[in-house]
Design a protein that fits this description.
This protein is α+β, with helices and mostly antiparallel strands. The protein contains ten helices and six strands. Bound molecules: flavin mononucleotide.
């Protein structure tokens, strides 16, 4: 709270008022000039407000649903669960993720990207040659059904979803959406919230067509004018460590 108060002062309110009374010709900030800060307004919960405000001047429509709208929340949970199920039972999409599995400390250190797996059981299965990364598990196998069940439990305990929609999808818009997302993530983290992006329903392969249509309809974001740039679940979760990084040099092309 102290930090928020400080930011408000730095943001102009108190300082501007003091200056105006000294000069005797009070001026007000034109409402239109600061409209961008209000666009996702209306939220009274301080955590939601902080996330709304973090979107700031970026040209992104930001939305949030929480437990105060249980029916809408249930729709989000259902679409996310169905999209996740489809990804898991579609061999070529699950194999796409398998390509990025990094199993055990050695592989994680070598690649420093992808999906890190440190679960001892998976590491041992891999060591004994029992983890076939070229073969998608059957839809009714334990590997698939247990993940679907786990994700269902995660959805059932998720108290909120947020989304970011843009008009257009050129590179500059994508970068703006990324900036807005990172700022929202930082604001959420400050307030003790965790976020997990959900990409499955936003993907454009044929098996995913229904969840794709459902989420675009639910977010009032008809294609092709609108693009849902991010959809994420938000809530309270145990702290997790940072994801691997390759470091700046690995990303810079030197000529
Ligand atoms: C555009 C985008 C889409 C993502 N989609 C998913 C997703 O569908 N499921 C998921 O578990 N994590 C998803 N993530 C989260 C990443 O897997 C990863 O956990 C996160 O980016 C790690 O944060 P860090 O790289 O800032 O440490 C997504 C992240 C981004 C940026």
């Amino acid at each position: 709270m102290e930090r928020r108060g400080f930011l408000r002062v730095v943001g102009g309110g108190v300082i501007a008022a003091a200056t105006a009374s000294a000069s005797g010709c009070a001026q007000q900030m034109p409402s239109s000039a600061v409209a961008a800060w209000r666009k996702a307004g209306g939220a009274t919960d301080p955590r939601r407000r902080a996330m709304n405000d973090a979107v700031g001047p970026h040209p992104v429509r930001f939305g949030f649903v929480g437990t105060d709208r249980p029916q809408l929340l249930a729709r989000h949970r259902a679409i996310a669960s169905e999209a996740w199920r489809i990804e898991l039972v579609t061999p070529r999409t699950i194999l796409e993720s398998y390509k990025w599995l990094r199993v055990g400390a050695g592989e994680i250190a070598r690649h420093r990207d992808g999906i890190s797996l440190l679960d001892p059981m998976v590491v041992w299965l891999d060591r004994f040659g029992l983890l076939d990364r070229d073969q998608a598990p059957a839809p009714d196998s334990f590997a698939t059904t247990s993940q679907i069940e786990e994700f269902g439990n995660a959805m059932a305990s998720t108290p909120g979803f947020l989304w970011m929609v843009t008009e257009g999808n050129d590179r500059a818009t994508q970068v703006e959406a990324g900036r807005a997302y990172v700022r929202v993530q930082l604001a959420a983290t400050v307030h003790g919230l965790s976020m997990q992006p959900l990409s499955q329903a936003l993907q454009e392969y044929p098996e995913q067509a229904k969840p794709y249509a459902d989420i675009h309809r639910l977010l009032d974001a008809p294609r092709p004018v609108n693009t849902v740039q991010m959809w994420a679940r938000v809530g309270f979760a145990p702290a997790i460590g940072p994801a691997p990084r390759r470091g700046l040099d690995a990303h810079i092309v030197r000529t």
